[in-house]
Design brief:
With 150 residues, this protein is an alpha+beta fold. It has 4 helices and 8 strands; from the N terminus they run H-E-E-H-E-E-H-H-E-E-E-E.
Amino acid sequence: MSEMMEASYGQLSTMDSGEFAGWRYWQGDPFETRSGPFYYRREDDGSYVSAFRAEPRHMNGGGFMHGGCMMTFADFALFAIATDVLNGDHAVTLNLSGDFLGPIASGALVEARGEVTRGGGKTIFVRGLVTGDGQPALSFTGIIRRLARR
């Protein structure tokens, strides 16, 4: 069971080419690879930004990004935002909530930025904002639970 659990986390990798060259991503995470792929990097100010390029497969029947895709990306961003607090530990999402603020069109650069509002222990609180080409699309809050080291 331990080997199966360890394998399911994927491996942190760095893109070596394309639009997101130099950005990090989880290689081998089946859901994130299929739904994204999503990337993140550290900014000059020490914060983290997550990003991906919106594609037609991310859209809903109305032609804008599906709300489930935005929430999936927000869930990814929770962990990127909390990278330093997590310090390499594995964790799970306990809660994720969001308020939809505007649409994201196909082709848009989708980004998420935020902050840890409380961290350091087993429970980490995060808030953030997802934008599409710089326009607010989703405000989110989440709670992450650090897992015990094995």
